From TrEMBL:
The lineage of its organism: Bacteria, Bacillati, Actinomycetota, Actinomycetes, Micrococcales. Residues 107-311 form the ABC transmembrane type-1 domain. This is Carbohydrate ABC transporter permease. Residues 1-42 are annotated as: Disordered. It is a multi-pass membrane protein. It comes from Occultella gossypii. The chain crosses the membrane at residues 53-76, 111-132, 144-167, 173-194, 215-240, 290-311. Belongs to the binding-protein-dependent transport system permease family. It is found in: Cell membrane. It comes from the Bacteria.
Length: 326
């Protein structure tokens, strides 16, 4: 009687087989890149720890600012400054800010500059990017070259100030909008996105008699919602956070944007013009100067925190697709 001995695969027992790999190692698919392989327990623990620390580094300062803005003088004194654990809470810092009038007016100025500036910058970026995305358009290469030059070389502060002063924009809100209305980087992002749109769709529309304006409005823009949302967020955050142009061009404190009030009151410790309170002497007995400072910081953060979640889902498709093809 013959006994059949099972053959042991050389691949299983050889140097590259399962015995050599060990029981704890997973075999990676040959077509999958190494960074897509499933991480082991140590790597998962390291990633979880790193992400947890990053989240805490972001959330703890935000929590501290909000809690401090809602704290009383006694709670701030007990904490020795910034309050991490909430105690007695009050909204008096916010009511003092609203009663002062300067901060609310500064919020209105910032909202106007952000809304008008973002709309104007998006219009300029869309029209310029669409024109530059068309091969053979008039002045295509010289205009593109000039845009690239501005990304590396600037005129400087003094020539820019002389141009703004020569246009009569000193103490005008347009001085906070026009000097930064054009961003070469954002235009190039949108141009590359437009170039990724299937040319066959655009050529079909031209054959059917559609004008360039109709193609832009009814075909290109609906297909470009992601990149428009992302670039619009870039412009909006830039306008909302800008304060240096206001330092240079705005002398009237009634036209100060919120960020300049924030800089003057929180960072430099100066009294806000037109208010009945200042960092050193407060007529609100239960409100600490630190609480009012943190309340101004919260007002400056809230609009961006509200808008960002609605635009965040467009980031991957808007920026990455616009950056692939040049």
């Amino acid at each position: 009687m013959t006994t059949t001995v099972p053959r042991t695969s050389a691949r299983a027992s050889g140097p590259g087989g399962a015995a050599a790999r060990g029981p704890g190692r997973r075999r990676r698919h040959p077509d999958r890149p190494p960074y897509e392989a499933e991480p082991g327990p140590v790597a998962k623990t390291a990633k979880t720890t790193a992400l947890t620390l990053i989240v805490l580094a972001v959330l703890v300062p935000l929590w501290t600012v909000v809690v401090t803005s809602l704290s009383t003088q006694a709670a701030i004194n007990d904490a020795g400054g910034l309050v991490l654990v909430p105690g007695e809470l009050t909204f008096k810092a916010y009511t003092d800010i609203i009663a002062g009038g300067v901060v609310t007016r500064a919020v209105g100025v910032s909202v106007f500059v952000t809304a008008v500036g973002t709309a104007l910058s998006l219009a300029v970026a869309i029209l310029t990017a669409y024109g530059l995305s068309r091969p053979g358009s008039l002045g295509h290469r010289p205009i593109l070259f000039m845009l690239l030059i501005t990304m590396f070389f600037g005129a400087g502060m003094i020539p820019t100030y002389l141009v703004v002063a020569g246009l009569g924009l000193i103490d005008s809100l347009w001085a906070l909008i026009l000097p930064t209305a054009v961003s070469a980087f954002n235009i190039l992002i949108m141009r590359n996105f437009f170039m990724n749109i299937d040319r066959g769709i655009l050529d079909s529309a031209r054959i059917d008699g559609a004008s360039e304006w109709r193609i832009l409005g009814q075909i290109v823009l609906p297909l470009s919602k992601a990149v428009i949302a992302v670039v619009g967020l870039f412009y909006g955050v830039a306008y909302w956070n800008a304060f240096f142009n206001a330092v240079l061009y705005i002398n009237d404190s009634a036209k100060w944007p919120l960020q300049l009030v924030l800089r003057s009151y929180v960072l430099q410790g100066q009294a806000v013009p037109g208010t009945t309170f200042d960092p050193s002497s407060l007529d609100g007995g239960q409100t600490a100067g630190l609480a009012i400072q943190m309340a101004v910081v919260v007002l400056a953060m809230v609009p961006v925190l509200i808008v960002y979640p609605f635009v965040q889902r467009h980031f991957s498709s808007g920026v990455m697709i616009g950056a692939i093809k040049g």
